[in-house]
Amino acid sequence: MEWSRIEPREGEWNDEALDWYANLIAECERLGLVPMLTLHHFTSPQWFAAQGGFANKQSPEKFFRYCERVVARLGSRVPLWCIFNEPMVLVAGTYLASFMPPAEYSPRNAARASANLLRAHVLVYDLIHAKVEKREGPWADIPLMVGIAHNMLDFKPDRKWHPIERVLTSIFRRFYNRAWLDAVTGKKQRFGVWGVVPYPEQVSEARGRVTVDFIGVNYYTKAYVQWRPKAPATERPAQLPLGVTFARRKEDASDLGWAVYPKGFGRILKFAASYGLPLYITENGIADRDDRLRGEYIDSHLKEVAKAVQAGIDIRGYYYWSLLDNFEWIKGFGPRFGLYRVNYETFERTPQPSTQIYKKWISNQKNLGF
Q: What total of structural domains would you count in the chain?
């Protein structure tokens, strides 16, 4: 859903936008596609951003009002809900690593936004379960499930022998991979890093209770943690003498420089499953303009899914990212994630050879075990 289309100005509602989404869900029903509706995927209305975005103390209530409209209109026909896509990426990109607007280095705002996002999540989780009582349409018998999509990386020290990089790797795993999953499963909220990001006050509404019915796993690659990195291509949090790199020189990597590393996917699935909730793999894919690596990427990563299912992990579904080429934020339209290539001048869609490998997997879901 695009919040700025539905509420272009604060308190002003666009019913035509909701009509468009209602028609989209109806088309999913016609085609036999079970919809998972995502309420927030990084973008917010300009009026909301001008007020400070999720660093604003009133942001949970403002987000809640938008979600009320969506749930009232579409709730009865949607079985699966994702409240926030990658809240940790949103916070880090906005206030720590400066790759999302307003791209300001502000650890204090990172802490505030984390707490406000969690509070907004809890408010909307309760809203959906309270308001969606009567279900309609072909998916009415599918249990109502509400969760988040959480990006995780298989963190490793760049130099195994380096004590600081080993400690930093542990910190990255806790802050980036674990903090949000702990918070939405009622555990201690640890959105800070001592000496770097202040710890915000605990969100009382989230303490001691589980506020997700599933965990959405977004996985693409691994990350080497570096202390005082020298390589120019290394991504570095602003003003900090550390960074991460996503591939070494001789490793197969995507057009974005992300290593192809299915083994890490298996580890992340096992870690996510340790929270005792069903999993949806909400994103997994590769930017590969020439479709050189995508087929093997799909095959090797779906084999990890099959292994996890065979090991008893409760995986309910898998979404390849993405069906079509997409706008990849600050990277623009350059990266090509799509199973179907999009000509951005004519909008013609052309299937890539790798679609045949994916088709073989999904035409016989017994291969995956679900």
A: 1
One-letter amino acid for residue 286 of the chain? I
CA–CA gap between residue 48 and residue 364 (Å, rounded): 45
Give yes or no for a contact between 63 and 40, defined as CB atoms under 8 angstroms apart. yes
In eight-state DSSP terms, residue 159 is S
Q: Which residue's structure tokens are 């988040």? A: 148
Cβ neighbour number for residue 209 with a 10 Å cutoff: 12
- Three-state DSSP at 133 gives coil
Amino acid identity, position 221:
T
The token pair at 38 is 């995502």
With respect to residue 182, please indicate whether it lies within any of the assigned structural domains.
yes
| pLDDT given at position 86 | 98
CA 124, CA 177: separation in Å to the nearest integer?
22
123 lies in which domain range?
3-153+175-220+252-367
DSSP 263-321: HHHHHHHHHHHTT-S-EEEEE-----TT-SSHHHHHHHHHHHHHHHHHTT--EEEE--S
Classify residue 228 by its DSSP letter: S
Q: Do 167 and 226 contact (CB within 8 A), yes or no? A: no
For the chain, residues with pLDDT lower than 70 are: 231-239, 370
* Contact between residue 110 and residue 92 where contact means Cβ atoms under 8 Å apart: yes
CATH number of the domain that residue 187 is part of: 3.20.20.80
Task: Say how far apart CA 61 and CA 38 lie, in whole Å.
Answer: 18
**Residue 279 domain-assigned?**
yes
H/E stretch holding 50: helix 46-50
Cα-Cα-Cα-Cα dihedral sign, residues 168, 169, 170, 176: positive
Q: Which residues are catalytic?
A: 283
Residue type present at position 187: K
How much is the mean pLDDT over the chain?
A: 95
CA distance 176 to 185: 16
pLDDT tens, 162-221? 999 999 999 999 999 999 999 999 999 999 999 999 999 999 999 999 999 999 999 999
Number of neighbouring beta carbons within 10 Å of residue 353: 11
